[in-house]
Amino acid sequence: MKAAKRSVKNPAKHSDTRPLRIIGGRWRGRKLSFPSVDGLRPTGDRIRETLFNWLAPHLPEARCLDLFAGSGALGFEALSRGAADALLLERDPQAASGLKQNLAALNSTAGHVIEGDSLKWLNRESPRAFDVVFIDPPFQQRLWQASIDRLAQEGWLADGAAVYIESEPDTPLAVPEHWHLHRDKTGGQVRYRLYFLER
Are 139 and 41 spatial neighbours (Cβ–Cβ below 8 Å)? Predict the structure, then answer.
């Protein structure tokens, strides 16, 4: 019986983390891992490649905000491709710890992790205006509209800022009139949209 119990536990240890690969920039090909947390769903490689092709002219020296960082796929990719800094918000303590460990593994001082509720954090006064914002919350929590509404408040977004939103295909969004839809694509069960603020 004891041997049987050990054989059940061992696979669980291997499934406690999942792999993440950075696909472009100075860390291209670097393999990281992140905790296997319920609801954590990294943006797929193909979507990330498309997104960062869209963002390529806007990333150098950009100040980025990853509202629901999770695995860090979007924030790390932005830093790898030339962003000046990235602020990664994550509510789950295990996932937040994983983000910090991966930033240390990358020897990055340009990434910063805040553990806490993203919507509560957005209720405070903006510490800076961000150039690029990623909104990719756990789909089941349906936090897209609340995130948009808070970001639309004065001070969060720089002139001409880019806002990326990843959602389920049928998710309706109401964005401010001065958010111009730049790209809108659907792949499988994911719809991804990129907006630019009109200057």
Answer: yes
The residue written with tokens 């509209």 in the block is 145
- Looking at domain 2-197, its CATH superfamily turns out to be Vaccinia Virus protein VP39 (3.40.50.150)
Short-list 20, 12, 56, 17, CA closest to 37: 17
Q: Which residue has the tokens 């996932």?
A: 95
Torsion angles phi and psi, residue 186, rounded to 5? -125, 130
Q: How far apart are the first and last CA of the chain?
A: 68
Q: Tokens 């020296």 sit at which residue?
A: 61
Backbone angles phi, psi at 6, to 5 degrees: -65, -40
The C-alpha angle 143, 164, 190, rounded to 5 degrees, equals: 70
Residue of 121, 51, 128, 117 whose CA lies nearest to 86: 128
Task: Tell me the pLDDT tens digit for each residue of 105-135.
Answer: 999 999 999 999 999 999 988 888 999 999 9
Instruction: Note the pLDDT tens digit of each residue in 21-47.
Output: 999 999 999 999 999 887 777 888 999
Q: What is the DSSP string of 67-133?
A: TT-TT-HHHHHHHHTT-SEEEEEE--HHHHHHHHHHHHHTT-SSEEEEES-HHHHHTS--SS-EEEE
Map out the domains of the chain as residue ranges. 2-197
- pTM, entire model: 0.89
Percent of the chain with pLDDT over 70: 92
